[in-house]
Design goal:
about 450 residues; alpha+beta; 4-stranded antiparallel beta sheet; 5-stranded mixed beta sheet; 13 strands; Immunoglobulin-like
Length: about 450
């Protein structure tokens, strides 16, 4: 749009604007003349009405003679006869008034942007706006020295070079990673300051994750089955035929992950029953390479509906989802010790026997998802269907050989079919932080269910 005023064919040029102004002026004059004639007609009508009332209509006028043309000492002298007849009495104009009127017109056109858009009035503008110089900050290339031009071109190329942006991104990424490593190292030293670990204690946590916050390390959660690590959708059909591809894959995925929990101790009796060992002795055992035993039967005393013979509930439309806390080297949970410090969403479920448990609860992520879920049973050592729990004696994790990661089951007893349901499971402890944003998965895990 900025180049349109340069075009000769542009409709908003001075000739067209002058033509429009002339037409508007002519129309205004015609309107004034019509109004004047109307006023004169009304005046004549009033005079005739008054003459009729006085009886002057009996006087006969002859020819073109008018009463005002032959004045007598007793007659009215009409000094404005020509004006009443619409005749111009003088061609003289007031030059000062015309100048003021023109100034007002130009001022009005400037305010509405007319003269500014077209480069000002003829008097004010002798050079087109697009030929004007921009000032000291917009020097033309020919006014710059050769050295200045080369420096300017070099800076321009450097700024627009994509490699420059890529290098900046890589530097920022390295800096963030270094800051994260420093923070993780500092927090790990704080939580394991009382431990003397051998050089073989270092661990690579693989897919396990943690998020750092101001008070320490915040653990993340994981779930199974998960056919693809970058996908969180679980889709299956209710069928008793084990040959169905998607259902069979989900069952095999759970079974593959839980193989370590179903076999006997293969690490020379390095498993111990941590429930029977005093807490102050556990860390010494962990330093020696011992770890707590955890079997499938330990998840729930008595019948467990989440087993492979029962297809983990998928064939009956009651899927079992395995929820685990990702391993963090040296992390020690701090469970709630009173009802007042428990978050409001699970406060009504808290009981004194939960003082040594990390609590885990699953629910619909949004109110519409809650309406699509009839019941969720939490199957864990805690023995409470309303909420699951993992004992704190499984921690800290010190990369012991044969370490068996504890978990709970969340079984969805009845859910709506052919509808996508968003689920979120959260772990609760004093040193597990949650975000107020429902989309933030800090200390939680999210997945979707679709039951055909």
């Amino acid at each position: 749009m900025n180049i349109l005023p340069k075009k000769r064919w542009h409709v908003r040029n001075k000739d067209n604007i002058a033509r429009v102004l002339r037409d508007e002026k002519k129309a205004a004059e015609e309107e004034q003349n019509a109004l004047r004639r109307k006023t004169l007609a009304e005046q004549e009508a009033r005079l005739n009405h008054l003459r009729v009332q006085r009886g002057d209509h009996l006087i006969q006028f002859q020819g073109s003679e008018d009463a005002s043309s032959k004045p007598t000492p007793t007659e009215h002298v009409n000094l404005f006869q020509l004006e009443e007849q619409g005749l111009k009495t003088s061609d003289a104009t007031n030059a000062e008034h015309e100048k003021e009127k023109k100034a007002e017109t130009e001022e009005f056109e400037k305010k509405i942007g007319l003269l500014t858009y077209l480069g000002g009035s003829v008097v004010e503008r002798t050079v087109p706006w697009y030929m004007e110089r921009g000032g000291s900050k917009q020097l033309l290339s020919k006014e710059l020295s050769k050295t200045d031009r080369e420096e300017r071109d070099r800076l321009r190329v450097q700024k627009q070079d994509p490699l420059n942006s890529m290098s900046k991104y890589v530097d920022d990424l390295k800096r963030k990673r270094d800051d994260g490593n420093k923070s993780s190292s500092t927090n790990a030293k704080k939580s394991t300051s009382s431990m003397s670990l051998s050089s073989s204690s270092s661990s690579s946590l693989g897919n396990d994750s943690a998020i750092a916050f101001d008070g320490g390390i915040n653990p993340g959660l994981g779930f199974r089955p998960q056919l693809h690590m970058d996908r969180s959708l679980l889709k299956w059909r209710s069928s008793r035929k084990t040959g169905h591809e998607s259902t069979g894959q989900l069952i095999d995925n759970i079974q593959e992950w839980g193989k370590l929990h179903t076999v006997k101790d293969q690490f020379h009796q390095q498993m111990i029953d941590c429930a029977a060992v005093p807490r102050h002795l556990l860390i010494d055992y962990f330093r020696q390479g011992l770890s707590c035993i955890f079997l499938v039967t330990d998840v729930k005393p008595g019948p467990n509906p989440c087993t492979k013979p029962k297809s983990f509930g998928y064939h009956k439309g009651r899927p079992c989802i395995l929820i685990k806390i990702n391993r963090i080297f040296g992390w020690i949970p701090e469970p709630y010790q009173s009802k007042e410090e428990v978050p409001i969403e699970i406060r009504h479920l808290w009981q004194p026997n939960m003082k040594n448990f990390i609590l885990i609860k699953c629910f619909g992520q949004y109110p519409t998802d809650e309406d699509l879920i009839d019941q969720i049973d939490h199957i864990s050592i805690l023995g409470n269907k309303a909420i699951g729990g993992i004992p704190t004696y499984y921690y800290p994790f010190l990369n012991q050989p044969g370490y068996r990661q504890p978990y709970i089951w969340a079984q969805f007893i009845k859910i709506e079919s052919n509808v996508l349901i968003n689920i979120i499971c959260r772990a609760y402890a004093r040193n597990i932080r949650h975000s107020t944003d429902i989309e933030d998965m800090t200390g939680a895990v999210h997945f979707e269910l679709f039951f055909e």
